[in-house]
Amino acid sequence: MVIVLLGKNGQLGWELQRSLLPLGEVVALDYPQIDVAQPDTYVSLLREAAPRVIINAAAYTDVERAEAEPERAFAVNGTAPGVLAEQAVGMGAALIHYSTDFVFDGKKTSPYLETDPIGPLNQYGVSKLAGEQAVLQAGKSYLILRTAWLYSLRGHSFITRVLKGARQKQSLRMVTDQVGSPTWARLLAEVTALLLARGGEDAPGWLAERRGVYHLACSGQANRLQWAQEILRLDPHREEQVVEVVLPARSEEFPSPVKRPAYSVLDCSRFNRVFNMSLPDWRLALRLAMDTSTVLAASQSARPG
Ligand SMILES: NC(=O)c1ccc[n+]([C@@H]2O[C@H](COP(=O)([O-])OP(=O)(O)OC[C@H]3O[C@@H](n4cnc5c(N)ncnc54)[C@H](OP(=O)(O)O)[C@@H]3O)[C@@H](O)[C@H]2O)c1
User: Is 179 exposed, middle or buried (0-12, 13-18, 19+ CB in 10 A)?
Assistant: First the structure.
C-alpha cells in the first residue's frame, strides 16, 4: 500500500513516519519541499505516487501567529484540506485529516461530543473548522480526527518548556483555568496506523463506510498546572530541577491576543464504539512518553546554556 504523508516533520508527522512504516511505502513530504497552500507544489507528486491513503498532518499550528496572519492560516488549515479531499476522491484514495478541540468555545463543563455546537474563539480555530467543512463537502472516504493538547518530546512543546523552566527558575506559574486532555502524538500515530492496518488494501472502501468526524484524545482531563506538576514528577532527571514551587495562575495574568477555550475535553466514545479502540488516560500516556530513553533528548535540550 502506498501512503502519502504530508507534514512529516511536525510532532504528529514525525511519529506517523515511524508508525506507518510496516504498512507499505510511505511517501513523506513537508514544507518547504511542498506548500499545501499551493496545490501546484504537490498535485503532480500525489498523482505520481498514486496512494491508497493520504494523511494530512500538515497544519499551521502557531495559534498566536494565526491572529496576525489569518489568511495564511486559512490557506493551510482551511483551504488545503478541501483540495486534498478532492485529490483523494480523484484517485480513489482515503484521506485522514486531523483537527482540533479549538473548534469549540470552551463553555461546556462536560466532555464535548462530535455533535456539540462549534464556536471557535480564535483564527486558528476558525481556519481548522473551515478545513473540516471542506473535507466533509468534498470527501468520500475520509476520517477527520479531532485531537487535543498534542505533545511530543521532540522540538518545542509544553513538556520541553516545563522541563526547561524547571531548570532555570525557582518558581513557575501555570494556569488552572484551561482544562483539556494532553495527548501524546506517538499514540495518535499508532492508532492511525492500526486503523489503516485494519482496512488493509481496501482502506479507502473500509474508511468510506466509517467516514466522519471523530474525537480522539487521551482520556481523563487536567488543567495546565496539573499537567506541569505531573511532568515535573515524572522527569527522570529531577536532580537537575531548581524549581521549588509551581504556583496556580489565571489566564488573564498572561496577556495574549488569542482567546483559548477554558474547557475543551473531548468525549471519544464515538471513536471507541466504531473502531473498538481508545487512547489511555493522559497520566499513563505521559509516563510512557517520559520513559528515560525517550526523555533523554528532551531533558538534554532543556539544560540551560
Ligand atoms: N499541537 C497541538 O496542541 C494540537 C492540538 C489539537 C490538534 N492539533 C492538530 O494536530 C495536527 C498535527 O499537529 P502538530 O502539533 O503535529 O503540528 P506541527 O508540529 O506544527 O506540525 C505541522 C507540520 O506541518 C508543516 N506545515 C506548515 N505549513 C505547511 C505548508 N504550508 N505546507 C506543508 N507543510 C506545512 C509544518 O512545517 P513548519 O514547521 O516548517 O511550519 C510542520 O512540519 C494538526 O492538524 C493540528 O491542527 C494539534
Answer: buried
